[in-house]
Amino acid sequence: MPDAKQKPAQQQKSVEEQLAYLRKGAAEIIREDELKAKLEQSAKTGKPLRVYLGVDPTAPDIHLGHTVVIRKLKHFQDMGHTAIFLIGDFSAMIGDPTGQSETRPPLSREQVDANAKTYLDQVFKILDRDKTEVRYNSEWLGKLTSYEVIRLCGKYPLARMLEREDFRSRLESGRKWEELRRGISGLVKPGRQHGSEPPESDRKLDALRRGISGLAKPQSIAIHELLYPLLTALDAVQLQSDVELGATEQKFNLLVHREIQREYGLAPQVAFTMPILVGLDGVKKMSKSLGNYIGISEPPNEMFGKLMSISDELMWSYYELLTDFEERVIVRLKEEVRTGVLHPMDAKMQLAHTIIASFHGEAAANAARDEFQRVFRNRQAPSEIEEIHLKLQGNVISVERKTGPNLRKGTITGPLTNIQKWSSLLHGFAFVSSAAEAERLMKQGGFDVNDEGVRDPSAKLDLSHSATYTVRVGKKKFLRIIVE
Prior knowledge:
This protein has helices at residues 15-23, 32-45, 64-78, 109-123, 138-141, 146-153, 158-161, 165-186, 200-213, 223-239, 251-263, 300-308, 312-322, 327-339, 344-360, 362-377, 416-419, 422-428, 435-443; strands at 28-30, 50-55, 82-87, 132-136, 243-247, 270-274, 386-393, 396-401, 409-413, 447-449, 452-453, 467-473, 477-483. The chain folds into 3 domains: 1-295, HUPs (Rossmann fold, 3-Layer(aba) Sandwich), CATH 3.40.50.620; 300-377, Tyrosyl-Transfer RNA Synthetase (Orthogonal Bundle); 386-483, Structural Genomics Hypothetical 15.5 Kd Protein In mrcA-pckA Intergenic Region, Chain A (Roll), CATH 3.10.290. The chain is globular and about 85 Å long. Helix content is 46%, strand content 14%. It is an alpha/beta fold.
């Protein structure tokens, strides 16, 4: 049970004002009348609500998609309520089946512990460390006896558990697959005379059988997956939570938690869900595995560039879910963009600056904005770019990289007339995949030397005397070449 000391609620806003503040960006509140009643009781008694977010540390990094619901926990914290960040160190070793078409592989204790540490380091960029109650569900789940697990399972019907969309779709896919397999296996080929060509029906039947034999059987449901929402429901019981936060895809789990609280004689918590943030591609949810994410620990310049790449339409959901701008301010910004008073890029730059400042500070956000302005709007070289020193020695060009991730020292060899060509040099520097790609970029106007466009694919670098060249390849790659 909760062991943190009770703190008096420091609510400076009325219940209605709190509700208006907390509703911002919410997908669903189950039930809002219950939340209002809990807020009224909190204001009356001075006892803060206990609000928690449970997170299984399945990966070491947090991206902006994760912060949507963490920010909502911070909003409750801002209202004077107790914010509980629950690390699912035990449940991560089971594997949450939410949104999974197959059984999620469980993590080892070592993986969970390593991930949990980095989670906290990043979470406290959002939450107030001194006002956050951090708990681990191994505190109680790790002590359960087999009798207690069986008793828990008796508190929720299997039929309702199988109503879960993830489970229902897997069961239905498995049933259809099995029916198809049995149907094809039971078909009998019509007889034909010896030596004659097989009829078209036989050939189609053979093709069907080959197809079903090569088709993977849908993943079945493992018993431990059914246990996941029941075990995590004990988190709500042990924490005696008033509100639980989660993404919309966690709605089933949150509703199970409400029911189990009732079974243990507690008032059911409010299930408060937040939308899933769409990733940089504008289509799928933000995910590291899909490569459409922005990590909150990424360098400010990288974060700024990624945020500026989102579509104008997607920008508004980022404003709503990733900033504390009031709804009326966002509406005004949208209207200014629509009427041409504000350019979409300027609105997006303000968004990027606001988000980056919240994680890296105002100075870093200003520097990232200025860098983006210099490179992408003014088409100037970045303040820090890769530097390569070249020296011609006979028919060999010695190369030394002063910065950058690639080879520090090396040589480019070949006929002098070829190795002096820009296209060959760029390929040798690993700035392009081939000399042909470099030549294509040059023809399309994607290659500048000292701010002068070079479109001739046969153009060469003069290595006969010392000089410094600033090179742009495509829109984002810059290079400083020093000929010694």
